[in-house]
Design goal:
The complex is a heterodimer of chains A (273) and B (282). Chain A is of the alpha/beta class and 273 residues long. Chain A contains twelve helices and four strands; from the N terminus they run H-E-H-E-H-E-H-H-E-H-H-H-H-H-H-H. Chain A has a domain of 191 residues: Rossmann fold (3-Layer(aba) Sandwich). In chain B, strand 10 and strand 11 form a beta hairpin. Classes of the chains: A alpha/beta (273), B alpha/beta (282).
Chain lengths: 273, 282
């Protein structure tokens, strides 16, 4: 029996403590979060509000012309519910000239440009608001590589990266995030009608359970198949994990000297704090 | 005899020994105010845990002329102190050390004998392995020091027991991990279970002080404990928060428990030894 249930009180305490500690130790008290209207950014947002206080969190909505109206509205529900400062910055005018340069542009490329443009705007607001950008990538999408490198993956710290999607949902409910956000089909909302699960070809529920066995419980592929998972599904997920490893690392540096960043120059980020 | 024990589960600044010393001195002052006879700090309490390439720059020697230890030795005139640090020997090998200071003197230094180098741990890459497990005399009777992974193995507490330690002083920088639907993390449950087991099996006092705070994405869960010779929990610090937990140990409990349950009297060390020799010769 695969049980992904977590104790949400413990998770809440550890994750709010993490946000507070990792910001304050480097001299920050403010945070900036891109609120998409989806569940992941909602959870990071609520954790940050609880860790830092509503007055210290800036919520930024970054719609594109084809973004669904629901997304904007759901982000607004959270802004109103938690009484935080917010900004809405349309990215349409920023990305359209770049799209126009190449008539052959695919929706995949457009999606990446939008994700990276949102990153640029968030990091600009970060400087202006003197707050650090809080990450919103969960463990499921990080392992599957279902995210844009230097786009939605970019952040100063990430409180969600060790929570599977089902655990994000569980914790979100416990923290009072409205069910209209928790229960809707997950979507990157990069084009109309896009959903994560139709793009991935499997459900998060299936993926969470398989990843839990493969990663957390160290099951072999064969053992997962014996547990009842479809062989093609297991292989597809394993391939995704392997092929997306580059997204979970900084670019490798070619070693020449006796002491090289990444190999034998080893310090935590929290060095001296 | 009574022993007023203080458990100082602190957060540390990574690599900032002066700042950590200051926090130690504040906690020592507070422990003194609360009439403590002994205050125990966590593993690597003067340096932080994931020191990696900082090892050589944060190392100190527990001597009177050391700029850090001279303050701690001075403070130990008032109450006994256990601190964690990076110890550098005369030939520049670096150890994860724990030292017992009393009356301005160093009574004992323990070098961690088990360096976890697996999973999220990488201690064997940066530190030398200690090679002794010894108990020592204190004004409260014989005691022993162990550091984290040392007591994940059964043999170091067993050796301390046979070497006369009635008070086992464990220190940790234990990263929290294994979140399930239960109230406690798996790592906390494991350490609490074995601490209680050692106290019960060795009919001894088992003290455990674990740090709190964060280093990058790692958090440390605190929850310092004291178990008595019956294996009963006498006190526990909070999880995840800095705290000074003060508790009185009635050392006469050793006699009462062992009169009832003579596990120490009946321990067949020669049998253990001869079987170990046979096993090692295989």
């Amino acid at each position: 029996m695969i049980d992904l249930t977590i104790n949400t009180d413990v998770a809440r305490q550890i994750l709010t403590g993490f946000i507070k500690s990792e910001l304050t130790r480097v001299g920050y008290s403010h945070a900036v979060i891109g609120l998409s209207g989806g569940i992941d950014s909602a959870l990071s947002f609520v954790l940050a509000v609880e860790a830092l206080g509503a007055e210290n969190v800036l919520a930024v909505r970054l719609p594109y012309e084809s973004s669904s109206a629901d997304s904007l509205e759901h982000a607004q529900i959270l802004i109103d519910q938690f009484h935080v400062q917010s900004e809405t910055i349309e990215i349409t005018d920023i990305v359209t000239p770049l799209f126009a340069r190449d008539p052959q542009i695919t929706k995949q490329r457009k999606g990446n440009i939008m994700a990276r443009t949102r990153m640029i705007v968030l990091y600009d607001r970060s400087e202006a608001f003197k707050g650090l950008v809080i990450g919103t990538s969960n463990k499921t999408e990080l392992l599957l590589g279902y995210s844009t490198l230097w786009g939605d993956m970019a952040s100063a710290i990430n409180p969600l990266g060790d929570l599977y999607k089902a655990q994000v949902r569980q914790l979100s409910r416990a923290l009072g995030i409205p069910s209209v956000i928790v229960d809707k089909p997950p979507s990157a909302d990069l084009w109309a009608g896009q959903t994560d699960e139709s793009e991935l070809g499997f459900t998060y529920e299936q993926a969470d359970k398989l990843l839990f066995l493969l990663v957390d419980q160290r099951y072999s592929a064969q053992e997962c198949i014996e547990e009842g998972f479809d062989e093609n599904f297991v292989n597809a997920v394993l391939t995704r994990i392997r092929r997306s490893q580059f997204k979970r690392m900084l670019p490798p540096i070619a070693k020449l000297s006796n002491r090289t960043i990444g190999y034998d120059f080893l310090y935590l980020r929290d060095w001296g704090t | 005899m009574k022993l007023n024990l203080a458990l100082a589960q602190i957060a540390t600044k990574l690599g900032d020994v002066e700042a950590n010393l200051e926090k130690h001195l504040n906690y020592i002052k507070e422990a003194r105010k609360q009439k403590a006879d002994l205050v125990v700090f966590p593993e690597l309490s003067l340096t932080g845990y994931v020191v990696q390439d900082l090892v050589a720059t944060v190392a100190h020697r527990p001597t009177e002329d050391d700029p850090i230890f001279k303050h701690l030795l001075e403070a130990s005139q008032n109450l006994d102190i256990v601190v964690g640090f990076v110890d550098e020997d005369a030939r520049h090998r670096f150890y994860i050390g724990s030292t017992y200071l009393s009356g301005g003197r160093v009574l004992h230094v323990h070098h961690k004998v088990y360096l976890p180098t697996y999973g999220l741990f990488d201690e064997g890459r940066f530190f030398a392995w200690g090679d002794s497990v010894r108990s020592f005399e204190t004004r409260f009777g014989r005691a022993g020091l162990l550091i984290c992974e040392d007591f994940w193995h059964a043999s170091p507490p067993y050796l301390l027991w046979l070497d006369g330690a009635d008070i086992m002083l464990f220190s940790s920088a234990s990263p929290g991990r294994g979140l399930t639907d239960r109230e406690k993390l798996e790592s906390a449950r494991w350490v609490e279970r074995v601490s209680k087991a050692y106290a019960s099996m060795f009919t001894s006092f088992v003290v455990h002080c674990n740090r709190v705070g964060y280093e990058d994405g790692l958090h440390f869960w605190g929850g310092a404990t004291v178990n008595d010779p019956n294996g009963e929990l006498l006190a526990q610090g909070p999880y995840f928060e800095e705290a000074l937990t003060v508790v009185q140990l009635d050392l006469n409990q050793l006699r009462r428990t062992r009169a009832r349950l003579p596990l120490l009297r009946d321990e067949r060390t020669n049998l253990t030894m001869s079987e170990l020799q046979r096993i090692l010769q295989k």
